[in-house]
């Protein structure tokens, strides 16, 4: 092939990548994401046209205590745009600010700073309503609802449990084991107990005495995915009254919004995402080169894992991946590297089942990938730490490219993914299965890259 030059984001700069071997590389890009109308107009239209539900203003009644559940700062939802509009809707329906609580669905994330609270609500709304962070470890402020069919003991934030009306908000984006974010995740893990969170997350594994990852637990998969179905069962116990979810672009603009019945509206949002923002590829590549999209998407390794998962989905077993992820803030969690002390996935799984941690699950997923494909990581991490994760390390792209290509046949196929953290690529079979898991129907036409 003739050489090809590409500029790929890495941290706060761009790396010049020169590709000289194999077949001509295919650059995998998402479909154009046109915002169309402005964000507030998209939100107003969604609220005015709810899916399988009355309008919010027809659900609430003067005197109701209303709780709005909102995501924390780790999720890009555009809540500073939609929360003021949602509260305005409630005000017009006779619900004053004093009867509205905004609970931040932290799951087991850290508490938010005052600045983060302000950014989530917007300056004007923050001066009127002060949000409350959910605390999954505060047993005195949790109300037990019951146990799911899979054994998860559902205890929920007391403010949410004692509300007359509950409104869920958030954003829909791919999630590597829950299928998609948004919807029921505002309840589980968002406002549930630590114990419930851990029990639900353990459903990534096959039930005992079987071992290994449950094959139905995967990105963009809903029906049949036990993690999704357990979260949905928990949300049904709480029986939220209304939902508003956005789909947000890489520049934080609102691309679409879905409101109404918490189950039907969420499924509609997931279907819309799959149809409009996912791309199917017909074959897996021998070599996949992926950038996270630069800072802050590659600020730490845990954030970079999203791009690694995207590239892994379209790379042949035993193939090669070159990952550009600066990781200027290290791993993103103090104990993350300590999980890489096992020689086999079975040993890793046994330890994780016995002492589950959320980021231990990310470490396990990383271990699975690094032992089934060859990953070369270009980063600021210590080389010894990269090797401990069963990956190869390279100081430059050129070094990584040489290392990968010398182990591939002459006619190898290459994919280049410039923004792996913000894009969903699936094989054609996976795309079809994902569509069926959302709609129960076969999709008619996938966006394909041959």
TrEMBL record:
<dbReference type="InterPro" id="IPR048068">
    <property type="entry name" value="LarA-like"/>
</dbReference>
<dbReference type="GO" id="GO:0050043">
    <property type="term" value="F:lactate racemase activity"/>
</dbReference>
<protein>
    <submittedName>
        <fullName>Nickel-dependent lactate racemase</fullName>
    </submittedName>
</protein>
<dbReference type="InterPro" id="IPR047926">
    <property type="entry name" value="Ni_dep_LarA"/>
</dbReference>
<dbReference type="InterPro" id="IPR043166">
    <property type="entry name" value="LarA-like_C"/>
</dbReference>
<dbReference type="InterPro" id="IPR018657">
    <property type="entry name" value="LarA-like_N"/>
</dbReference>
<dbReference type="Pfam" id="PF21113">
    <property type="entry name" value="LarA_C"/>
</dbReference>
<dbReference type="InterPro" id="IPR048520">
    <property type="entry name" value="LarA_C"/>
</dbReference>
<feature type="domain" description="Lactate racemase C-terminal">
    <location>
        <begin position="283"/>
        <end position="423"/>
    </location>
</feature>
<feature type="domain" description="LarA-like N-terminal">
    <location>
        <begin position="10"/>
        <end position="208"/>
    </location>
</feature>
<dbReference type="Pfam" id="PF09861">
    <property type="entry name" value="Lar_N"/>
</dbReference>
């Amino acid at each position: 092939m003739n050489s090809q030059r590409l500029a790929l984001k890495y941290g706060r700069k761009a790396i010049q990548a020169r590709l000289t071997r194999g077949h001509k590389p295919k650059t995998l890009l998402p479909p154009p994401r046109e915002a169309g109308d402005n964000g507030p107009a998209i939100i107003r239209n969604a609220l005015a046209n709810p899916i399988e539900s009355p309008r919010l203003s027809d659900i609430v009644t003067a005197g109701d205590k209303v709780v709005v559940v909102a995501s924390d700062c780790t999720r890009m939802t555009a809540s500073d745009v939609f929360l003021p509009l949602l509260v305005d809707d409630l005000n017009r329906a006779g619900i004053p600010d004093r009867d509205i609580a905004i609970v931040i669905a932290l799951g087991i994330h850290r508490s938010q700073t005052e600045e983060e609270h302000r950014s989530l609500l917007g300056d004007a709304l923050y001066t009127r309503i002060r949000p409350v962070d959910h605390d999954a470890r505060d047993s005195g402020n949790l109300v037990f609802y019951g146990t799911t069919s899979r054994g998860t003991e559902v205890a929920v934030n007391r403010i949410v449990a004692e509300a007359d009306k509950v409104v869920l908000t958030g954003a829909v984006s791919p999630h590597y084991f829950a299928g998609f974010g948004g919807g029921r995740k505002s309840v589980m893990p968002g406002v549930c107990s630590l114990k419930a969170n851990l029990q639900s997350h353990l459903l990534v594994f096959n039930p005992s005495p079987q071992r290994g990852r449950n094959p139905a637990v995967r990105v963009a998969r809903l029906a049949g995915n036990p993690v999704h179905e357990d979260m949905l069962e928990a949300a049904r116990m709480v029986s939220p009254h209304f939902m508003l979810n956005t789909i947000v672009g890489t520049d934080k603009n609102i691309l679409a919004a879905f409101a109404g019945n918490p189950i039907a509206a969420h499924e509609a949002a997931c279907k819309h995402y799959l149809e409009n923002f996912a791309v199917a590829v017909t074959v897996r590549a021998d070599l996949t080169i992926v950038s996270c999209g630069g800072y802050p998407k590659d600020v730490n390794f845990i954030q970079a894992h999203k791009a690694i998962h995207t590239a892994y989905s379209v790379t042949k077993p035993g193939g090669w991946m070159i990952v550009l992820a600066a990781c200027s803030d290290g791993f993103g969690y103090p104990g993350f590297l300590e999980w890489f002390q096992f020689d086999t996935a079975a040993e890793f799984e046994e330890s994780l089942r016995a002492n589950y941690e959320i980021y231990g699950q990310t470490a396990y997923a990383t271990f699975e990938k690094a032992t089934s494909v060859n990953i070369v990581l270009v980063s600021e991490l210590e080389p010894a730490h990269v090797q401990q994760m069963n990956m190869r390390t390279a100081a430059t792209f050129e070094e990584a490219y040489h290392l990968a290509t010398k182990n591939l046949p002459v006619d190898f196929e290459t994919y280049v993914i410039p923004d792996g953290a913000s894009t969903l690529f699936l094989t054609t079979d996976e795309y079809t299965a994902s569509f069926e898991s959302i709609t129960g129907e076969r999709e008619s036409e996938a966006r394909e890259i041959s």
